Amino acid sequence: MAENTFTGKVVTGGGSGIGAATAHRFAAQGATVVIIGRTQAKLDGVVAEAPTGSTLIARVGDVSDEEGISRLVNTVAHDHGRLDTLVNNAATVEPLGTVSDMDAAGWRRVMSTDVDGVFYASRAALPHLRAVGGSIVNVGSASGLGGDWGLAAYDAAKGAVTNLTNAMALDHGAEGVRVNAVHPSMISTDMTAGFLQSEAIVAAALNRVPMRRFGEPAETAAVITFLASPAASYVNGAHIRVDGGLGASNGNPHLA
């Protein structure tokens, strides 16, 4: 993709893990990028590592705060004169647990970030995206396409993001706004760091992934920027796995 693909465009999204890698990739290709997150120090670190000569701005915000995130998205569009791409990347996997052992507060904590945040940010962004023929890229998960043991809330939340992507693609495609999703699995980020400390989990996971390695945030970022680019101008309602081939399996162990 050309270095100036997003020159003159304004992008907003998350500021850690996949979000940080995505911000750097958009910025390297000429976009003005505004990253949003809860922790100023973490955001400042992402800005400090931005490509030389790029424009990357940090804003503290919480996607689960309806009024706050709506105000922040509108401010980004106002300050920069437009908004071309919204990347809905914020998510939490914790607390882990089944429906039997999770309390309502834990359930709401996951849902408020992983689902409500997508709704709030998208609703605020849509008027600005309509004005320029922009797009939304939702960061789902392989866990939104199939279940995991002990991740009831996260699986439910990411499943909601999957079908919300479909609904928005149908509802807003005629308005000139494309809505797509990427679905990573076992990417090396802070969210997966706890799992990757277990040798047993690592061995079991690598045994299932045909490419025999974990993904890097930059590999998901490359797909996100493609979906937001002119090269994907007729791609709407797409769901792209970034999982090293994990989803190609029917679930059986190695039999041959």
TrEMBL record:
- Asked whether the UniProt record includes NADP among its keywords, one would answer no
- Asked whether the keyword Acetylation is assigned, the reply is no
Recorded GO MF terms:
oxidoreductase activity
- Gene3D superfamilies assigned: NAD(P)-binding Rossmann-like Domain
Protein name as catalogued: SDR family oxidoreductase
Quote the EC number: 1.-.-.-
Q: Which PANTHER family match?
A: 3-OXOACYL-[ACYL-CARRIER-PROTEIN] REDUCTASE, SHORT-CHAIN DEHYDROGENASES/REDUCTASES FAMILY MEMBER
Q: Give the UniProt keywords, A-Z.
A: Oxidoreductase
UniProt family annotation: Belongs to the short-chain dehydrogenases/reductases (SDR) family.
